[in-house]
């Protein structure tokens, strides 16, 4: 396997991870107009909760379930208590979610300490497998698989189910959906919990690939997700997928060839999209 | 009406006199240093209030400007070994802040306001990384230690009066700005952007001007911060520094200018107090969590902060119930 292919696969694995965070953020923003600055904190809470359950039970699957449930619970509580009273008030929402980010991150530091915590790969996913007669980590392949699974799952949810239709209609015009007799608020809660659950799920999946986790990883990964939704267009599901892939691949190549400017390149790409097509690369002007 | 109490120049003059008397009443170097810290951070907080409280846009990268000031003073004083280059460094910082404010503003305000919060956050991260990687200039994560500042600032009392004068001057300047026709337009944009636009104002230009002014003021406070610390490292571009501006403004009172001064005092002294408590109770090492909770409570239930809430009570006591009513309606839309 050539170096380029290796980097490409690594990039796709990173992109899958970013996608897990970005898709929830993008849907929540598209549907409810809430830019959730605590999304990264939920991601890393998923990581910690997953690690705790993984260590306690020895089963990675239980870790994944525990982390995801933690995210869904945090998201649901957050929406009910903090977001719901402030629909339509963007400034208050931004300020509130940032406050929640502070409290969630500091809470992690209080319970688990601010230092690195080792997160081992589950035994079944350790080691390498031959891709085109060259070794490649199994876990990266697992990540790509999970990314594809979520991509297809969310796509089916959005395009084939009644809820998906309501969500897509809600992104376009929430008032109209409400007028048709659908309880949009309940859909809001569901999407918020779903988005938070996906982020936390991503957190558990990401944990072993980081090798060790710290509470500050939440913010760093949230930034990537922000850049992705600016590039892909807010509320645009295919845009989020394409943007994640793009950022994942570009960052991996940059980290290899020009490690010093890897992050700068993502920000530069975001700036370029803002100049050239501020509504996102895949969006059509409505 | 709410600003009437603090339009009251007598009250402010009295406060200024009390603060000016502090060095004569107490020789505690520690107290003076704490107060200098409060004054410098208060200017930083007020600059943030111009954006958040008066223009209604949320920046999560305000520390870019603060850090720019801090680093340009740190770098220039060490590279030239000329402490008196301080003024040139401050000038460079102001010009740099204006340019960067323009670039970030033009990039992000073309879309929706929420983009601004997101994009400023991304840019702050970018500056943080630059400061870390470009170590020949910035000293990397070790920072620049032992910065030689003009000997004038080595005398605590002289520095104290300079910082106090700086705060007073910036307060008067910013108050002038927010009460000018320009400032009124900013507040109108905060209240109802579409209406201002339909009246023929170029909203983008007004917002850009607000970002530039606020950035220049923050850069100056960052420069003085380096003079006080004699040390600068990447933390000046950190998320915590932006959160600090946010906390000071929100806790003190959004859209009051003076609230940021109050907030700076509360945060600085409480931080110090929590740090001293943390030796006994480890819970207080997570002092930011307490501020986070306080901040959430204020945003949810007292959207006007300490000062705004007190002012409301005060106007109600004065029997100005009609004014208070219209007032509360007015400031509701800030948060």
Automatic annotation (TrEMBL), chain A:
A single cellular component GO annotation: plasma membrane
Species for this entry: Tumebacillus permanentifrigoris
InterPro entries given in the database record: ABC_transp_permease, BCAA_transport_permease
Subcellular location: Cell membrane
Protein name: Amino acid/amide ABC transporter membrane protein 1 (HAAT family)
Membrane topology (UniProt): Multi-pass membrane protein
Alphabetized Pfam families for the sequence: BPD_transp_2
Keywords: Amino-acid transport, Cell membrane, Membrane, Transmembrane, Transmembrane helix, Transport
Example GO molecular function: transmembrane transporter activity
Domain of life, source organism: Bacteria
PANTHER family: ABC TRANSPORTER ATP-BINDING PROTEIN (PTHR11795:SF442), BRANCHED-CHAIN AMINO ACID TRANSPORT SYSTEM PERMEASE PROTEIN LIVH (PTHR11795)
Transmembrane segments: 12-30, 60-78, 90-112, 138-158, 187-206, 226-249, 256-276
Family: Belongs to the binding-protein-dependent transport system permease family. LivHM subfamily.
GO biological process: amino acid transport
TrEMBL record, chain B:
InterPro entries linked to this entry: ABC_transp_permease, LivM-like
Membrane-topology annotation of the record: Multi-pass membrane protein
Keywords: Cell membrane, Membrane, Transmembrane, Transmembrane helix
Compartments in which it is found: Cell membrane
Keyword Transcription regulation: no
Any one Pfam family match given in the protein's UniProt record, by short name: BPD_transp_2
GO cellular component labels: plasma membrane
Primary location: membrane
Gene Ontology molecular function terms on file: branched-chain amino acid transmembrane transporter activity
Transmembrane intervals: 51-73, 85-108, 114-131, 157-174, 204-225, 245-267, 287-307
PANTHER family with a match to the protein in the record: ABC TRANSPORTER ATP-BINDING PROTEIN (PTHR30482:SF17), HIGH-AFFINITY BRANCHED-CHAIN AMINO ACID TRANSPORT SYSTEM PERMEASE (PTHR30482)
Name of the protein this chain belongs to: Amino acid/amide ABC transporter membrane protein 2 (HAAT family)
Organism: Tumebacillus permanentifrigoris
Lineage, top ranks: Bacteria, Bacillati, Bacillota, Bacilli, Bacillales
